[in-house]
């Protein structure tokens, strides 16, 4: 690695290169293994924590081929993966830290490569915006695999779900982290019936009633005066 000739069109690394990417967490139909599926190319294919790239278009060439867009992809920078996670299509994805090895090609913001080891899984936020704590059955999937969905404790209540440690065990990834939302979450939700607010509203309504009564009395007086003429 390195040196003036290292940036050829195709390179090879025996030393793993770190990278970051998004993926959907998947659970095998028999519940005994977990894996990942791509968020763009190769959505139908599920890969394991350590895996070799297959051509997404069914060709038998070695990945990554110059003539094809197949292979694993990653970003050099974790911020680029986090940015991509903001897109509505990718909100349900988890962030993977990976080590790329074997044949690879560089592109603008990362690598396209042949072999991958997932070194960490970062679970971000629930669809509701709170920090996700579990991976629940999403109802979607591909043949033999159910797609999992990061959910918070509230949205996940009563749904079949895996906690991070169990997902790590089944996926054979030792680091599964809860990333949480990078924005400040409300610390406490106000109680549905705040007695202070209710008392204040009652007082305001009482004042309004009193004014209405007064107005009606004046109107009555006016009317009776007019009728009396
Ligand atoms: Zn290909
Ligand atoms: Zn939620």
The radius of gyration is: 29 Å
- What are the low-pLDDT stretches, counting only 5+ consecutive residues below 50? 1-8
| Measured distance between first and last alpha carbons | 109 Å
User: What is the strand tally?
Assistant: 11
> What is the N-to-C order of secondary-structure elements (H for helix, E for strand)?
EEEEEHEEEEHEHEH
Shape: elongated
Largest sheet: 11 strands, mixed
Strand content: 35-45%
Number of domains: 2
The chain-level mean pLDDT equals 86
Bound molecules: zinc ion
| Class computed from helices, strands and strand pairing | alpha+beta
Number of helices: 4
Oligomer: single chain
Summary?
The protein has helices spanning 78-84, 153-156, 164-171, 195-228; strands at 11-28, 34-37, 46-47, 50-52, 72-75, 94-107, 110-123, 134-142, 145-151, 161-162, 175-178. It is of the alpha+beta class.
Structure description:
- The chain is α+β, with helices and mostly antiparallel strands and 229 residues long.
- The protein is 23% helix and 35% strand.
- The protein has helices at residues 78-84, 153-156, 164-171, 195-228; strands at residues 11-28, 34-37, 46-47, 50-52, 72-75, 94-107, 110-123, 134-142, 145-151, 161-162, 175-178.
- Strands 1, 2, 3, 4, 5, 6, 7, 8, 9, 10 and 11 form an eleven-stranded mixed β-sheet that branches.
- One zinc ion binds at residues 55, 57, 59, 61, 63, 65, 68, 70.
């Amino acid at each position: 690695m390195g040196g003036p000739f290292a940036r050829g069109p195709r390179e090879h690394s025996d030393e793993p290169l770190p990278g970051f990417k998004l993926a959907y967490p998947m659970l095998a139909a028999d519940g005994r293994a977990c894996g990942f599926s791509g968020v763009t190319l190769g959505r139908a294919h599920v890969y394991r924590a350590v895996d070799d790239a297959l051509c997404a278009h069914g060709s038998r060439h070695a990945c990554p081929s110059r003539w094809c867009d197949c292979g694993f992809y990653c970003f050099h920078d974790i911020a680029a993966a986090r940015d991509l996670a903001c897109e509505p299509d990718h909100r349900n994805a988890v962030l993977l830290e990976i080590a790329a090895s074997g044949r690879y090609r560089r592109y603008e913001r990362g690598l396209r490569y042949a072999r991958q080891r997932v070194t960490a899984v970062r679970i971000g936020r629930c669809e509701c915006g709170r920090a996700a704590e579990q991976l629940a059955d999403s109802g979607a999937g591909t043949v033999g695999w159910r797609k999992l969905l990061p959910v918070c404790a509230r949205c996940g209540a009563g749904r079949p779900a895996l906690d991070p440690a169990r997902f790590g065990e089944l996926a054979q990834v030792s680091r599964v982290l809860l990333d949480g939302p990078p924005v400040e979450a409300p610390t406490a939700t106000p109680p549905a019936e705040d007695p202070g607010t209710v008392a204040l509203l009652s007082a305001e309504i009482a004042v309004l009633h009193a004014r209405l009564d007064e107005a009606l009395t004046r109107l009555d007086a006016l009317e009776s005066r007019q009728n009396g003429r």
